[in-house]
Amino acid sequence: MMLYNTLTRQKETFSPIEPGKIRMYACGPTVYNYFHIGNARTFITFDALRQYFEYRGYEVTFVQNFTDVDDKIIQQALKENLTSVEVSEKYIEAYFADADSLGIRRADVHPRVTETIPEIIAFVEALIQKGVAYEQQGDVYFDVTAYPAYGNLSKQSLDELKAGARIEVNEQKKSPLDFALWKAAKPGEPFWESPWGPGRPGWHIECSAMARKYLGETIDIHGGGGDLTFPHHENEVAQSEALTGKPFANYWVHVGYLNVDNRKMSKSLNNFFTAREIAAEYDLEVVRFFILSAHYRNPINFSREAMTAARSGLERLYTALENWRYYHDHAPETEGTEDQNQIATLENYRERFMAAMDDDFNTADGLGIIFELVKAGNALLTEKPGRKVLQRALELLQELAGVLGLLQKEDTSEGSLEDAVEKLISERQQARQNRDFARADAIRDQLKEQGIVLEDTPEGIKWKRVVNDR
Ligand SMILES: [Zn+2]
After folding, report:
1. What would the 3-class secondary structure string for the chain be?
2. How far is the CA of 285 from the centre of ligand 1 (A)?
3. Minimal CB count within 10 Å: which of 15, 150, 241, 325?
4. Ligand 1 centre and the CA of 141: distance in Å?
5. How remote is the CA of residue 250 from the centroid of ligand 1, in Å?
6. For 251-284, how does the pLDDT look when each residue is reduced to its tens digit (9 = 90+)?
7. How many A from CA of 405 to the centre of ligand 1?
8. Predicted pLDDT of residue 158
């Protein structure tokens, strides 16, 4: 498999440290709010990447943290009149609920800062001993000048970085680029006792400490949203490599931006959506389909049109599933060369799917192959295939879609096909009333491809199944 590595800015052949095993870490949410649709993209991407590795036979250990100590949590606690612990508990629970509905599986470990304090303190102490960190009035800072490779991940020179950095009034650091490993407690804030007095960890140190605790000194893959490359991931590399003298992560995987209506998502632009808000309007499987329909490194634009397209794409997959099931149940029990050839034709799509996915986890092309399989399966119906062939077609469709976490709904009875067809018919009638004949024709063609033909009758539009004549 080829994987793009931010560290080298190129696609590389993926090769894990230990054959057959993958140690993967992704930065999780700061739990002060419901996660937004941009976060959802990152979580879905790593969930699907993990699933694909497992499909390819790897044993994956996946760690995703919760940042449960942070300025934003402290502020939110004041706003909601809760304690910081209550705020983080509330939004960790919300994370799991929202992740579940997006089909995102639990990580093997979801470590929290509040449960990793001893490891964080030991890490910071060791950095001070190594001479790459210093204490200043209860704060501890990482000394960037003591780590010559700083800037390597984000491909920026120290001079460039220095030009962009500044010291906040309340900070005691020696150089603008130095960053806090430990912060002295301010009144009213949560704190822990440490060799430097009461305080709490800075943000970056938690991921270095957690990755080390659960995955070891060098891990295979570290990832997160692209916006974390600098300073967060740069700082993680500096801390970890300064401590161990070994590479921290062999592959850095970063997920592209999600825009809303072609603009950067922001509360002030009124285009900021949480996954929860989206769930009120769309089935979250549609969201997952939408996100995986783009390559993970490309920017993606969330819009009503894109969601409508995703919905009809997903419907096409479900309709094929239903339809093939119907034909399967009514197919003759045959077994012969013809059947074997048809099965071989279908199996070919698995190879093509894997080839697409092996090329830097290209889910966009992978989905494209799934649609080609659907087309081929629909075309096969004209040859009146035997039950075994249809059985294989069904299994294959569910297998490949399942790798992306799609088509997992159990409720795919005959009734849901009828609902889907009826919905498309009324959508088509609406389109005709609006004189949008292109859309009306597209719906008719889509149904036809799925073996469903519309008939105008005195009682209105009726539909029936026919074997395709293409
Ligand atoms: Zn992190």
Report:
1. CEEEECCCCEEEECCCCCCCEEEEEECCCECCCCCEHHHHHHHHHHHHHHHHHHHCCCEEEEEECEECCCHHHHHHHHHHCCCHHHHHHHHHHHHHHHHHHCCCCCCCECCEHHHCHHHHHHHHHHHHHCCCEEEECCEEEECHHHCCCCCCCCCCCHHHHHHHCCCCCCCCCCCCCCEEEEEECCCCCCCECCCCCCEEECHHHHHHHHHHHHHCCCEEEEEEEHHHHHHHHHHHHHHHHHHHCCCCEEEEEEECCEEECCEECCCCCCCCCEHHHHHHHCCHHHHHHHHHCCCCCCCEEECHHHHHHHHHHHHHHHHHHHHHHHHHHCCCCCCCHHHHHHHHHHHHHHHHHHHHHHECCCHHHHHHHHHHHHHHHHHHHHHCCCHHHHHHHHHHHHHHHHHCCCCCCCCCCHHHHHHHHHHHHHHHHHHHHCCCHHHHHHHHHHHHHCCEEEEEECCEEEEEECCCCC
2. 27
3. 15
4. 17
5. 16
6. 999 999 999 999 998 878 888 899 999 988 999 8
7. 25
8. 85
